[in-house]
Design a protein that fits this description.
The chain is of the alpha/beta class and about 550 residues long. The protein has three domains: about 40-155, Rossmann fold (3-Layer(aba) Sandwich); about 185-445, no CATH class; about 460-545, no CATH class. About 40% of the residues lie in helices and about 15% in strands. The strands form four sheets. The protein has a nine-stranded parallel sheet with strand order 13-12-11-10-9-8-14-17-18, covered by helices on one side. Strands 6-5-4-7 form a four-stranded parallel sheet. Helix 12 runs parallel beside helix 15 (about 390-405) and helix 17 (about 465-490) packs antiparallel against helix 19 (about 525-545). The radius of gyration is 27 Å and the shape is flat. It starts with 6 loop residues before the first strand and ends in a 5-residue tail after the last helix.
């Protein structure tokens, strides 16, 4: 019965479809019934409308006519045999509507790549419309697409708000970090030559410190920055540390830490003071694509941009993604809880915990408990099924780790506390090492840290290459500043057009400003911002020339 092909049947009210023994529209009034379904749907502006099983389009034209240009429509057909009919019979007016995207994946796993990211950043909400009975054929998958779309819209708007708040700081850090690239080591040179443990700073790390210390020589510890002082309290020095924070908040993680034998892996957008915590031959950069910019495109074309990661938000998630890129061998997760008990956000020894405990005395109640309750708490099943407390932000981070683990076999979790990570739960470090030994015997080879197939092998750019790039970038920013000043002095169609074209090339100059370049009052703030970046670029060029003086 599953091999049955759909049939297109004529009725007095238009075409209907019969598939697997059922009518997917009303058998007598297919058009009127579908229109009645969509007529009752209220669509607010800026809505992503997911049309589940559009079939031949009954009811869709009136729906499109009622919605304004801010809405977007995804016509989603998950049944391949019905998708053929959609592509063949759907009215041309629907095909030609610029708001409409038709998605017909061969399998549900291909969905993510067929949704444009612009849909999520443009829309403010998502809703599901079911004009036909085709929805029932894959109801669970359609509902999951709706949930996924809602999550992606929420994440896109969180990123937009973060960009408004952090945009200028990110690009300032980028220009300050560029002079450090020539002497740094490319990311692919980090040798993960022992079984890897990705160490977070969750409360469960405390219980693991004795076993990590006992097995220290057998492990490669890839720690997040916040875990450095926690490990240091047990005299454990990590092999590599991952840092992504753009502000000074995590600089205290490195106070008193000896990083002379530790490799620092840091984001190109992160605080330059963190990157300077170690010697250059023990430092590597990557790029988290937290914001789109023409500057990043130019850096990529010039061969300067370090290996790229999508924006992952949490340093713990970034550390897992980096480990998956740097080695194809088994990986263990430790202290990545994404949950916390009342009054304890991190393991003991984390700077924030220490600072609050020191400030607590008889007349001043500590802020840890209140801070832990500041986010709405959610009780969810943990790794062992027992309930644990988390929040919306940490739930999203745990979801990202689960997605990474689903794509990458051989990931183990040695911490029974916290949210499920999607990794195979093992009893501890010893069992993880046993799993590694078993994998090596099965592969008939010793652990040499084989590379993941996706690792970027681009060599480090030279100082001359970066200096030349920055001088060209300076010319672009200077042109933007001149165009902005001209528009501010005498606004005409010509000066406004020249101004907007210049800003489109140096879009980061407007990043973080609560104003768009097409606004009449935008010229003066953008001129000031361009002047700010000219200073940062000049400093970067000077540092490159100081470190690499011309030979006489």
């Amino acid at each position: 019965m599953n091999d049955e092909s759909p049939s297109v049947v004529h009725t007095t009210d238009g075409l209907t479809i019969v598939f697997r023994g059922r009518n997917l529209y009303h058998p007598a009034t297919p058009r009127r019934s579908a229109c009645a379904r969509t007529q009752s749907v209220k669509v607010p502006n800026y809505t992503l409308v997911i049309v589940a099983s559009p079939l031949i389009g009954h009811g869709l034209l009136p729906l499109l006519e009622r919605c304004d240009g801010t809405c977007r429509f995804v016509l989603l057909e998950l049944e391949p045999k019905l998708a053929e009919i959609t592509r063949r019979i759907l009215p041309r007016e629907i095909f030609d509507d610029p708001r409409v995207t038709i998605v017909t994946p061969d399998t549900p796993d291909q969905l993510e790549h067929q949704f444009s990211r612009e849909l999520f950043s443009h829309c403010r909400r998502a809703m599901l419309v079911r004009p036909s009975g085709g929805y029932a054929l894959h109801a669970r998958h359609y509902d999951r697409v709706l949930e996924w779309s809602q999550d992606e819209i929420r994440r896109a708007w969180q990123n937009r708000l973060t960009t408004m708040h952090m945009g200028r700081l990110w690009f300032r850090n980028l220009f300050d970090n560029l002079p450090l690239l020539p002497a740094s080591q490319p990311l692919h040179t980090v040798a993960l030559n022992r079984p890897v443990v990705v160490v977070g700073a969750g409360p469960s790390l405390e219980r693991l410190l004795p076993s990590l210390s006992e097995q220290r020589t057998s492990l490669f510890l890839l720690a997040v920055d916040t875990a450095v002082p926690v490990l240091g309290s047990a005299n454990i020095r990590p092999d590599a540390v991952v840092a992504v924070e753009a502000q000074h908040a995590n600089l205290s993680d490195f106070i008193g830490a000896d990083l002379s034998q530790t490799h620092l892996i840091t984001d190109l957008f992160s605080l330059p003071s963190v990157a300077r915590q170690t010697v250059s031959n023990r430092r590597s950069f990557f790029t988290s694509l937290a914001v789109e910019s023409r500057l990043l495109d130019r850096l990529r074309i010039a061969g300067i941009l370090p290996p790229e990661l999508p924006p992952l938000g949490s340093v713990g998630v970034v550390a897992v993604a980096l480990a998956a890129q740097l080695t194809a061998s088994p990986i263990a997760l430790a202290g990545l809880d994404f949950a916390y008990p009342d009054g304890k956000s991190h393991a003991r020894g984390a700077p924030w915990m220490i600072r609050e405990l020191v400030r607590t005395y008889r007349l001043r109640r500590g802020e840890i408990y209140g801070a832990c309750l500041a986010r709405p708490r959610i009780s969810v099943p943990g790794k062992t099924g027992a309930p644990c407390k988390s929040d919306i932000v940490l739930l999203s981070y745990a979801e990202q780790v689960r997605a990474l683990c689903a794509q990458r076999p051989g990931v183990f979790d040695v911490s029974p506390e916290g949210l499920p990570t999607g990794a195979q739960l093992v009893s501890g470090i010893k069992e993880y090492l046993g799993q590694v030994a078993h994998a090596e015997r099965s592969a008939n080879q010793s652990h040499t840290g084989p590379r993941s197939a996706g690792i970027d092998l681009t060599p480090a750019p030279s100082a001359q290459t970066i200096a030349l790039f920055l001088k060209r970038e300076r010319a672009l920013v200077s042109a933007t500043r001149e165009a902005a000043l001209a528009a501010a002095a005498h606004l005409t169609a010509t000066t406004q057009n020249a101004f907007e074209q210049a800003v489109s090339e140096t879009d980061y100059v407007a990043c973080g400003l609560p104003i768009t370049p097409d606004a009449p009052e935008a010229a003066r703030p953008i001129a000031a911002s361009a002047g700010f970046f000219l200073v940062r670029i000049d400093r970067a060029i000077a540092r490159l020339e100081e470190a690499n003086p011309r030979r006489s």
